[in-house]
Amino acid sequence: MGPRSPVIAVVGTGAEFPCGLSPSTDAQHMEVRWFHGNHSGLVHYYRDSKDYLEQQRPEYHGRTELLRENITRGQVALRIHPIRPADEGDYRCLFVSSTYHNEARFHVEVTGSGSTPHIHVQTDDADGLKLTCTSMGWYPEPEVHWEDSLEQHLTPASETKTTDGDGLFEVQTSIMVDKSLSANVSCFIRNPVLSSQKGVCVSLAGSPFATSSLPTCRSTAGLWTFTLLFPPPPCTQLDATPACSDISIIPSGKPCLRHLYQVSHSVCVTLVMHVIVGG
């Protein structure tokens, strides 16, 4: 007898999958076998009070443990640590003896929420401002969207999703905005299994006098907020700041940081980093 509903396992953590006999029966001297997928997918094999792992699939080496504190009552659990995307799928637990054979089947659904989004800002020679939102470490494929001040979805200029060697998704999405705009723009990345999301909100001030009338980034758990001012005080104040062609905003967790950057020969920007909003 195993889990009746799919088991949610989070990438990078440990997960335990219970399996037992009903009615309760001493299973100390039974064989207990765990399979992922078909019969060739041996995950763990227990017999005569010992683990036999010579035939275990290579990807599970060093990652499994049979918890058998309650085996005299026919209750065991398989622990896998750390969980990987490839661990997702159907599992079977078998109890076998010379006079008995029983099995349970269940499904494992792997998921993981990635890093806090990172905003990259670039200017061009015209009046455009390119905001690029990136994040990594998601599973399964996350949902991505941009919002304006009215929480209306915005169409991205580009969007790519790639996987790394561990099968985790990395997201990169960009949007173009006008430098003279006074509003806020938010990038959200959502885990469809956990129904949780992380995001970043950038408030754009088209002039130094627009900050008082800027829309407020909505209070949402996991949302970081930033303010960009165009233009900042005169560029002569930037003598000690090396010129750069672009800037990156990465949440620092500090209450408030102000920096001046020269992003082109004629454009300067002031960044104001605020504390995280929500949790």
Automatic annotation (TrEMBL):
Record domain Ig-like: where: 3-111, 117-203
Assigned GO CC terms: external side of plasma membrane
Family matches, as InterPro entries: BTN3A2-like_Ig-C, Ig-like_dom, Ig-like_dom_sf, Ig-like_fold, Ig_sub, Ig_V-set, IgSF_BTN/MOG
GO terms of biological process kind: regulation of cytokine production; T cell receptor signaling pathway
KW Cell cycle (keyword) present: no
Pfam families linked to this entry: C2-set_3, V-set
Keyword field: Disulfide bond, Immunoglobulin domain, Membrane, Transmembrane, Transmembrane helix
Keyword Transmembrane helix among record annotations: yes
Localization terms from the record: Membrane
Predominant cellular place of this UniProt entry's protein: membrane
GO molecular function, one term: signaling receptor binding
Biological role stated in the UniProt entry: Negative regulator of T-cell proliferation.
Family: Belongs to the immunoglobulin superfamily. BTN/MOG family.
Protein name, per record: Butyrophilin-like protein 2
